[in-house]
């Protein structure tokens, strides 16, 4: 019985690639140094899978930034602003597209389906001259072969690539991206030809858009694309991989009807109903790559249950045609549980990271083949039973409080217009008030202080003294820049979710459980294993300390319940909304304590609310109802004069704008600049927004410093569709990933732009 892994984490068990990338970007190391680190990581990954007994090992899933940008490079679809003149795409062009450079901005970045991973959105139009410009897929296949590993090269499928793209600036929004299929398929054929010549016997096309709600025209594009590729693919085994949700009946019919295709990869963890489609009919002689091991969470697989599912499938597709696989790439989970030295043994026994999931896949494949490892299965069954019965998972008081939420929508008593009037009387802010999103740069010295405090190398008194000094610097800088509503900069926090999770019950934490978010940015999601509550205040001390340093309003900074949920590894033994309501009650306690401490502006970030939106339209309403309700629970008890902010970033918000309005926040700051001000179009189309709103005026994920004129131009575009009295001026997101050499001039230009516009507005009256 064969086994397969869809994809594997790239950063390395100790984030080796992250540090190599940042060293290269900072010009502290060479391209050769970066390539050496990457090659060593790839070699270790291939060896690990081969040693574990995996038959179908992927290649070309490694990336220096993201796999969609790799596909853009392969197709030579470089926007003209980057000055690329043909030939093999090198690091300078590749990273300029991803991060921008001194003269041009980066391409848009958005969330990869409903995950916290991001991809660089291709910018396409009728005039793009596609060409085979990156041989990475072939090079990595040959590289693996030189290590004695015959891999399955993985490509982003041609139809999904186009469906995930957007019309370039200046191209009509109605332009059919799928009309470009005839232009990109010849390049796919070149890649296929080279892979065949190099000795590849299998090829994997990732076509995850098949799980979306597609119309007949879009589904027909898959049929047309693979019919066109059929002769080029002759002699190869072809796997079409889908993941993240169920397939519709129409999509399933399209998938199994594709010409030249040997095998179909299905997510049977999130696609729980897809198995019914397989039972209703599966094409004879084809392979089913059954994704029964969860690639998006860290819980150990219930091996007995998975084996039962596989045995049912074996009866349908045939013993020699069933391949055990992960539900999706393991990119979305942590790397190796072996590196976790501080998790207690009970919780550790409940978990499986990427390395352990590879072992699970192979154990299931061997069990199906009649070589069941009885001891391994028995240990797994014991861990499953332990998790179900452990008293640390359940808190009856929390469950009772969450159950009592039913029957109320938890809205503030006064409408937002009246609240804004009351808040303005108290805060006395200028027109176009300026603020930032929360975090300020995390310097090496600051990281050292936090690290030494965690390691008990400095005392709590010395730690508090150092953090207070950092807050004072940040407050003084904002006053010097003349920002209106200040933040304390979050110097005590390494990560916005981890910080809160460490202070809430029901959470566990890893030492090296890093997961890539984008580029070199890694996050360490907390593990929610039990019922959630807040034992004591979490941020009141630091917010009060910061407020005592200034007469200007100081924002209390919290992470919202939906974002904590979506950016954690969440327990899978109860519905997600029940866990979210528990978190909401904990944050509500914190909001009310901040208000009592004299904090008049409180930001409750919901950066990931859109990210959690299910992929299928039929499931949107239920998710948005409980997600928005959870946010309202957090602040329903505050006074009218307390201003509630929220923040959202890097997603397509236009389709949920009415739910955003329904959150009933007083002010929302929201990503706007990197997505070509896509957000503003919703207001041009007539949506009325009465609360305060701050569409980001510059992209903080790029080192580029925007000019005063550029920012003023952005603000003017906003003023064309939004009322002056509700518009705020702020960056797209927090500043923790930037350097002060970038932050100071950028914020200075932002404030100067706001003042320039205030003067112009005053003179126009």
UniProtKB/TrEMBL annotation:
Q: Which CDD domains match?
A: CIMS_C_terminal_like (cd03311), CIMS_N_terminal_like (cd03312)
Ranges for domain Cobalamin-independent methionine synthase MetE C-terminal/archaeal: 432-755
GO biological process terms, semicolon-separated: methylation
A Pfam family hit: Meth_synt_2
In which residues is Zn(2+) 1 bound?
647, 649, 671, 733
* The protein's Enzyme Commission number: 2.1.1.14
What organism is recorded for this protein?
A: Gossypium tomentosum (Hawaiian cotton)
Q: What does this protein do?
A: Catalyzes the transfer of a methyl group from 5-methyltetrahydrofolate to homocysteine resulting in methionine formation.
The Swiss-Prot or TrEMBL record lists the needed cofactor(s) as:
Zn(2+)
User: Its annotated pathway?
Assistant: Amino-acid biosynthesis; L-methionine biosynthesis via de novo pathway; L-methionine from L-homocysteine (MetE route): step 1/1
Q: Does the keyword Protein biosynthesis apply?
A: no
* Residues involved in 5-methyltetrahydropteroyltri-L-glutamate binding: 18, 116, 521-522, 567
Q: What is this protein called?
A: 5-methyltetrahydropteroyltriglutamate--homocysteine S-methyltransferase
InterPro entries in the cross-refs: Cbl-indep_Met_Synth_N (IPR013215), Cobalamin-indep_Met_synthase (IPR006276), Met_Synth_C/arc (IPR002629), UROD/MetE-like_sf (IPR038071)
Cobalamin-independent methionine synthase MetE N-terminal domain residues are 3-316
What GO annotations for molecular function exist for this entry? Answer: 5-methyltetrahydropteroyltriglutamate-homocysteine S-methyltransferase activity; methionine synthase activity; zinc ion binding
User: Where Zn(2+) 2 is bound, by residue?
Assistant: 658, 662
Bound cofactor: record note: Binds 2 Zn(2+) ions per subunit.
Active-site feature positions: 701
- Record family assignment: Belongs to the vitamin-B12 independent methionine synthase family.
């Amino acid at each position: 019985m064969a086994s397969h892994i869809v994809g594997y984490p790239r950063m390395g068990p100790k984030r080796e690639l992250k540090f190599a990338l940042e060293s290269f970007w900072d010009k502290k190391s060479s391209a050769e140094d970066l390539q050496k680190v990457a090659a060593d990581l790839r070699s270790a990954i291939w060896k690990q899978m081969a040693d574990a007994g995996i038959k179908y090992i992927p290649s070309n899933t490694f990336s220096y930034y993201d796999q969609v940008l790799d596909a853009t490079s392969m197709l030579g679809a470089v926007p003209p602003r980057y000055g690329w003149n043909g030939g093999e795409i090198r690091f300078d062009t590749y990273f300029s597209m991803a991060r921008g450079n001194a003269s041009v901005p980066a391409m848009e970045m958005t969330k990869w389906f409903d995950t916290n991973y991001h991809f660089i959105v291709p910018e396409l139009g009728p005039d793009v001259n596609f060409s085979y410009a990156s041989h990475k897929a072939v090079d990595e296949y040959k590289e693996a072969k030189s290590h004695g590993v015959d891999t399955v090269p993985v490509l982003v499928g041609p139809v999904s690539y186009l469906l995930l793209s957007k019309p370039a600036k200046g191209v009509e929004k109605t332009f059919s991206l799928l009309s470009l299929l005839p232009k990109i398929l010849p390049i796919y054929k070149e890649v296929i030809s080279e892979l065949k010549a190099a000795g590849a016997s299998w090829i994997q096309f990732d076509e995850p858009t098949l799980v979306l709600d597609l119309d007949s025209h879009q589904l027909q594009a898959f049929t047309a694309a693979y019919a066109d590729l059929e002769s080029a693919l002759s002699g190869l085994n072809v796997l079409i991989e889908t993941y993240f949700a169920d397939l519709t009946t129409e999509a399933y019919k399209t998938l199994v009807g594709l010409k030249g295709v040997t095998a179909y990869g299905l997510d049977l963890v999130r696609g729980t109903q897809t198995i019914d489609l397989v039972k209703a009919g599966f094409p004879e002689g084809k392979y089913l790559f059954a994704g029964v091991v969860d690639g998006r969470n860290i819980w150990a697989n219930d091996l007995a249950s998975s084996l039962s599912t596989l045995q049912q499938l074996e009866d349908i597709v045939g013993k020699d045609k069933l391949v055990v696989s992960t539900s999706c790439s393991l990119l979305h989970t942590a790397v190796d549980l072996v590196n976790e030295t501080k998790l207690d043994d009970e919780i550790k026994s409940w978990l499986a990271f990427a390395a352990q999931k590879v072992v699970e896949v192979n154990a299931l494949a061997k069990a199906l083949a009649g070589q069941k490892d009885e001891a391994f299965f028995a240990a797994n069954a014991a861990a499953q039973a332990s998790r179900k019965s452990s008293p640390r998972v359940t808190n009856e008081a929390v469950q009772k409080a969450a159950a009592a939420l039913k029957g109320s929508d938890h809205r503030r008593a006064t409408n937002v217009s009246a609240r804004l009037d009351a808040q303005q009387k108290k805060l006395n802010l200028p027109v176009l008030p300026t603020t930032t999103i929360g975090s300020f740069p995390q310097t090496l010295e600051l990281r050292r202080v936090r690290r030494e405090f965690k390691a008990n190398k400095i005392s709590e008194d010395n730690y508090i003294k150092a953090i207070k000094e950092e807050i004072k610097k940040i407050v003084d800088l904002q006053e010097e820049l003349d920002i209106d509503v200040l933040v304390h900069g979050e110097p005590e926090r390494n990560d916005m979710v981890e910080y809160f999770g460490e202070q809430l019950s029901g959470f566990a934490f890893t030492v090296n459980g890093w997961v890539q978010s984008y580029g070199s940015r890694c996050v360490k999601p907390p593990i929610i294993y039990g019922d959630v509550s807040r034992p004591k205040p979490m941020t009141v001390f630091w917010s009060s300390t910061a407020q005592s340093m200034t007469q200007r309003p100081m924002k209390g900074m919290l992470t919202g319940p939906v974002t904590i949920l979506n950016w954690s590894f969440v327990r899978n033994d109860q519905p997600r909304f029940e866990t979210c309501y528990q978190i909401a009650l904990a944050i509500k306690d914190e909001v009310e304590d901040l208000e009592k401490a004299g904090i008049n502006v409180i930001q409750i970030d919901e950066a990931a609310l859109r990210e959690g939106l299910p992929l299928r339209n039929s499931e949107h309403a239920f998710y948005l109802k409980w997600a928005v309700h959870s946010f309202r629970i957090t602040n329903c008890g505050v006074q009218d004069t307390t201003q509630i902010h929220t923040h959202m970033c890097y997603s397509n918000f236009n389709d949920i704008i009415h739910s955003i309005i329904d959150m009933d926040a007083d002010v929302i700051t929201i990503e706007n600049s990197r997505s070509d001000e896509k957000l503003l179009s919703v207001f041009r189309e007539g949506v009325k927004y009465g609360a305060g709103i701050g569409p980001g005026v510059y992209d903080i994920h790029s080192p580029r410093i925007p000019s005063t004129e550029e920012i003023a131009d952005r603000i003017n575009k906003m003023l064309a569709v939004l009322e002056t009295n509700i518009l705020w001026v702020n960056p797209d997101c927090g500043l923790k990933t930037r350097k002060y050499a970038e932050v100071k001039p950028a914020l200075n230009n932002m404030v100067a732009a706001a003042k320039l516009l205030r003067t112009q507005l005053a003179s126009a009256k």
